[in-house]
Design brief:
The complex is a heterodimer of chains A (363) and B (129).
Chain A lengths: L4 E6 L11 E7 L2 E8 L7 H5 L4 H8 L7 H16 L5 H29 L4 H21 L8 E2 L2 E2 L6 H21 L4 H7 L7 H6 L5 H4 L29 H28 L18 E9 L2 E9 L7 E5 L1 H12 L5 H10 L4 H5 L1
Antiparallel strand pairs in A: 1-2, 2-3, 4-5, 6-7, 7-8
Helix pairs in contact in A: 2-3, 3-4, 4-5, 4-10, 4-12, 5-6, 6-10
Chain B lengths: L1 H20 L25 E3 L7 H5 L5 E5 L5 E7 L8 H5 L5 E3 L14 E5 L3 E2 L1
Antiparallel strand pairs in B: 1-4, 2-3, 3-5, 5-6
Classes of the chains: A alpha+beta (363), B alpha+beta (129).
The complex binds iron/sulfur cluster (2 copies).
The site of one iron/sulfur cluster has 12 residues of chain B, from α2.
Chain lengths: 363, 129
């Protein structure tokens, strides 16, 4: 029997590419011979825009780089400006930021669990995770004013003092049992296991060579979590989740465990905030804010891997050049390697397991 | 083999049961637009200006260039406009206004038939036109 080679476009509008990603697959039967990701459908010129706007004008826009985890990117820009101005933010601000970042991480992972299961054809968990994510987003709305585009961190601090801590308490008391529920539905489900176990094997070497970071890397057994060296997280007691399954199932499990770990961090932050005094902070005046000439760099562990920002300033009130590094960009590139030799019906499951989010890729 | 089958059936049953239990829970969604949820004070919706002195800070922090205003010879603000087509509801203007003249209201259903309706003009920076 002869088979012909077939070129297949997966996307850009496909229900299970989160955003618009086009994969050009070369198939022999159902086997994938090569995969060529085509990106750029969601390009908004985030880096070029920075060159035209002052720092304070640019700050609300960075939430939109990754709309599921906006806090991480505002944190990066704030860090750069703060370090350039030589300002040390007070401890309370640090803890507030950690609280928001970790809640945001949970919200992002929750959505991933739902979307991944949806890719595999299970619809119920999708609604359950949205229900829990909604609690977190409602809380964000109470504090920041909006559900996804927060614009809450600001150069030198946060926009206003933290309130409604009882809501956070409720979230962290409800969440563990809900995560147990997901695990009951998903983790041991034989169909789920058949579709994810030993699929999309990502060896530690490949992961490192392709600059994969974050959960995807840790689920391949490499211990790299830059929260441990992060100044912001100093004083928090947590461990990173290292699994060595290397497959899609491990990546799922790692995210579930990471949510539980984040709840741990939030508990510690809450304990601190409940005892703390009202917020005192020194904001950096935004009008005529000029960064001294030089290069600035900041990095943080975002839900989808290491995120970093690089700014070159020539002493003006706008950056000369600004560059973002986002985790998903590298995961998309990895698809070239990881999909090779797999079957078409696994392609979506494998791509989904990497937690690719397209606005972050295209910027 | 037998154990594997047993475990699989058990896992499936547990999952099904968890899903089944949800049938008896209260719905968490609202039938919009008949029912709406209550918004909180911090919500950033349509901006509103009142008591502007024309210092120009809001214009300089606005990322979208959505703000325009005019002063007369006496330095009084006679015209103030938000262009909602451009506004991204970031709240920068409200946060930095030294007079606290800008409020972000909780109005969010801003669709109009005529796009001029998206220019919010305030005469004298005070009353809504
Ligand atoms: S909310 Fe933001 S975009 Fe809208 S007018 Fe104010 S500063 Fe400009
Ligand atoms: S609204 Fe406020 S910031 Fe804007 S010009 Fe008037 S007083 Fe200044």
């Amino acid at each position: 029997m002869t088979t012909t080679r077939l070129k297949l476009n997966l996307g850009p509008q496909h229900p299970s590419t989160h955003g618009v990603l086009r994969l050009l697959l070369e198939l022999e039967g159902e086997k994938i011979l090569s995969c060529e990701p085509d990106i750029g459908y969601l390009h908004r010129g985030m880096e070029k825009m920075a060159e035209k706007l002052s720092y304070i004008q640019y700050l609300p826009l960075v939430d939109r780089i990754d709309y599921l985890a906006g806090f991480f990117y505002s944190e990066l820009l704030c860090r750069i400006v703060e370090s350039a101005c030589g300002i040390e933010i007070p401890d309370k601000v640090k803890v507030i930021r950690v609280l928001m970042l970790e809640l945001n991480r949970i919200a992002s992972h929750l959505l991933w669990v739902g979307a991944f299961l949806m890719d595999l054809g299970a619809t119920s968990p999708y609604f359950y995770v949205f229900r829990e994510r909604e609690m977190i987003l409602r809380y964000f709305e109470k504090i920041t004013g909006q559900r996804m585009m927060y614009n809450y961190f600001i150069f030198g601090g946060v926009r206003k003092d933290i309130e409604f801590l009882e809501d956070v308490e409720e979230i962290i008391s409800v969440l563990p049992s809900k995560i147990d529920d997901y695990e009951k539905i998903i983790t041991d489900n034989p169909i789920f296991i058949r579709r994810t176990e030993n699929k999309g094997i990502l060896s530690p070497d490949t992961a490192v060579n392709f600059a994969i970071t974050g959960v995807n890397l840790r689920a391949s057994g490499v211990d790299y979590d830059c929260r441990h060296t992060d100044e912001l997280y100093r004083g928090f007691d947590f461990k990173s989740i290292i699994l060595d399954g290397k497959d899609a199932w491990s990546r799922y499990k790692a995210r579930i465990l990471e949510m539980r770990e984040s709840i741990n961090i939030i508990k510690q932050a809450l304990d601190y905030l409940k005892k703390s005094n009202p917020l005192e902070q020194r904001l950096i005046p935004p009008i005529n804010l000029k960064l001294p000439e030089g290069d600035y760099y900041a990095e943080i562990e975002a839900p989808r891997g290491l995120a970093s920002c690089y700014v070159r300033s020539d002493g003006e009130d706008k950056p000369y050049r600004l560059k973002w590094r986002t985790g998903s960009y590298y995961s998309v590139n990895l698809l070239r390697r990881i999909l090779k030799g797999e079957y078409l019906n696994d392609a979506i499951a494998i791509a989904g397991s990497l937690d690719i989010i397209l606005p972050e890729v295209d910027k | 083999m037998c154990i594997k089958v047993f475990n699989s059936v058990k896992a499936l049953w547990e999952g099904m049961w968890t899903v089944f239990k949800h049938l008896f829970k209260r719905a968490v969604t609202l039938e919009y637009p008949e029912k709406r949820r209550k918004l909180n004070d911090a919500f950033r919706g349509k901006p509103l200006v009142e008591g502007c002195i024309g210092c120009g800070i809001c214009k300089r922090v606005c990322p979208a260039g959505a703000i325009e205003y005019e002063k007369n010879e006496d330095g009084k603000v006679v015209f103030y406009k938000f262009d909602l087509k451009k506004c991204i509801f970031c709240g920068n203007c409200a946060f930095y206004c030294p007079k606290g003249a800008i409020k972000m209201t909780d109005e969010y259903e801003l669709a109009v038939q005529d796009k001029d309706g998206l220019n919010l003009v305030y005469k004298g920076g005070a009353e809504n036109d």
